[in-house]
Amino acid sequence: MTEGTPTPRRILLAGASGTIGAAVLRRLQAEGHAVTAPDRAALADPQGLMATARPEVVISCIASRSGAPQDAQAVDYQANSDLLRAALAAGTGHFVLLSAICVQKPLLAFQHAKLAFEAELVASGIGYTIIRPTAFFKSLSGQVKRVKADKPFLIFGDGNLTRCKPISDDDLARFIASAIDNPAMRDRILPIGGPGPAISLKEQGELLFRLAGKPPKFKSVSPKIFTFTERLLALAAPFSGWFAEKAEYARIARYYATESMLVLNPETGAYSAELTPEFGSETLESHYRTLMRGQ
What we know:
Layout: E1 10-14, H1 19-30, E2 34-36, H2 46-53, E3 57-60, H3 69-90, E4 94-98, H4 109-123, E5 127-133, H5 144-148, E6 153-156, E7 163-164, H6 169-177, E8 188-192, E9 199-200, H7 201-212, E10 218-221, H8 224-236, H9 241-258, E11 263-264, E12 271-272, H10 284-292
Parallel strand pairs: 1-2, 1-3, 3-4, 4-5, 5-8, 6-10
Antiparallel strand pairs: 7-9, 11-12
Helix pairs in contact: 1-6, 2-3, 3-4, 7-10, 8-9
């Protein structure tokens, strides 16, 4: 699926200021593409961008930062929709979208916004590639400082409620770039993970403690705390945007505490490590080792 060297193309890359977008930009430049990477302010004028960049390919890595309903609608859906309409008007031939694997089971505002745009993209008539990655290394690195400080690693339940196949920024960037001029990735929705096996939250903690040369210490938190918090905040949500936003954050926290970032088996409705494709060479262990060294 990812073989071949594409002809250098004119590419408009939206979202290059983000972690994944920056990695995609490096990859595209290394491959010799002519890349226009506008900032968020410039995305307010997609028609003008298209007139200047004249892209053959649009790659969108933009995503809402908070996941709050208004932010999700404005970014995950509307900003992408505006970009798509401008691309269609400019005669762009291919639109590559960075989505997320969690949209398979949409319970959150940002997931519904992403799915709404995915559907619009598929129906638009433009050549498309929708990429749904699993967890990122960055999203699994928030407790490195706790382990370094000899504090317990926080887990939900017994630490085995969820699993994922995380993928590195550079491996994901290589996968995204490989969609250019690749018929095998055209007009497809592609879930993708990093090298397996799938890893649980507890196993992430065990890995960190092993690399630190320390015996593992865990502190369990019940996901029910997020359910309770969300229900409490939801009581005031109809009267206050602030409470509505905070209730959504609690729903997001509960989702990631209880749902795996793997492909859903359509026949069983269960998450499947076996059905989750793997790509790349960088492992979570090598990433953790670098962080533990302070590099």
